[in-house]
Each structure stands twice: as C-alpha cells, then as structure tokens.
C-alpha cells in the first residue's frame, strides 16, 4: 500500500511529464498523458477483485490481494491516455528510433524521480526493504543494483538507472517466445539486441547509449535505407501506371 506522499509524488511526476509535449528544449510524446486524478473511498470493487485474481493466477502478483481494505480505505484513481508517437527531443537534438509501426508509451512512474523548480519528487525505496529481498525476475536485480549505486539514497540522481532499465528491456525481449524465430529478419533482430545489451554495459546514460552506440546508428541507417528502397518502389510503380495510361 502506498503512502499519501508517494501518491502525490507520482501525480506530480505525471503532471510534469505531460508538459514535456510542449517543451521546446526537452520534448517527447512517449509518456502517457495524465487526464485526471480522483480520490475515492470504499471497499475494492468485486469486478476489480476478479480481474486481480485473474492476473494473479497467470502472472503471480507481487502485491497483497486488495480485499483486505475496508469501506474507509482511500484510493487514488489516475486516468491516463494511451497511444503516442515515438519521437524525442533531448537538449534540442531530435531522436527518432524506428519502431516498425509499434507505439512506444511509458505508463508507470510509481518509482520515478523528478527534479522540478529545485524540488525533488521521488519514492524513498529505503523504506521498502522487502523490495530488495524479492527474487525470480530480473527487475529485482535492477533494484538491488540501483540501491548499491545510490547507496540507498533515492533522492540522488543516477543517469545510469536508465541504462539498467534499457538492459532490462533487452533481457525481456530476448527471453520472449516468438512465432517465427528461425526467420532471417528475426535472427538479425535478436543479434542486434544482443549487441545492444553488450554495448549498454559501456554506457553511463541513455543519451550516451543513443549517441555513441554503433548498433543504434546501424538500425537508424537500415531504417533510412528501407525508406529509400520503399520510395524507389513507389516511384517505379507510379511510373509504370503513368506509362500504361499514356499508352
């Protein structure tokens, strides 16, 4: 169960990230937009308990079953929008990573840290020792590594944390079972992921990885080549159509 302070911190972070859509220096649409926040009181609804049980049966939840709360319990209901474009501006420099039609959206900021107008908003994980005792998923190894690098002082800034979470994504993507694992494109993509995971070990921040990592530069180049080939095919197609009509 979250404290009021941690909920307020998350809401503040959501609000600030929403404003990044219109920021001129650092701009991105990849954070899910906050629409509204409501505080409600009462027992956990039966429909939501059913959904929780269904998830727990499949994935095994790390949280306690919310039926323990009585009619005096307060809940924060956070309404968010879904679906954005994968474009980012960092320090005035534009980054656009090809996603092959996938919409990339970051939706959870519960454990995030943000500095706004000299005030730090964060969730003090030093108060949640049980988080570091959990095993079975790579994310818990990330938390333990973060704790070590931060010396358990979670108000501090650690750019390397983004590198750890990018590594986490690589690990998860490499663990997945795919429908066509033997295809050439799939094998190339897996190899690129493995190279990216290796190169991440040499990076100190996400920006450094994005600007210096050879495999990302290669992916961007391949994307541009694919677009160029597609444009050539389209031009050729319409040229043939035009010639047919002339005849």
From TrEMBL:
EC number, as in UniProt: 2.7.11.1
Cellular compartments per GO CC: cytoplasm; nucleus
GO terms under biological process: intracellular signal transduction; mitotic cell cycle
GO MF terms, alphabetically ordered: ATP binding; histone H3T3 kinase activity
Pfam families membership: Haspin_kinase
Keyword Kinase: yes
Reaction(s) this enzyme catalyzes, per UniProt: L-threonyl-[protein] + ATP = O-phospho-L-threonyl-[protein] + ADP + H(+); L-seryl-[protein] + ATP = O-phospho-L-seryl-[protein] + ADP + H(+)
Ranges for domain Serine/threonine-protein kinase haspin C-terminal: 129-215
Enzyme class of the recorded protein, top EC level: transferase
Keywords: ATP-binding, Kinase, Nucleotide-binding, Serine/threonine-protein kinase, Transferase
Protein name as catalogued: non-specific serine/threonine protein kinase
Lineage: Eukaryota, Metazoa, Ecdysozoa, Arthropoda, Chelicerata
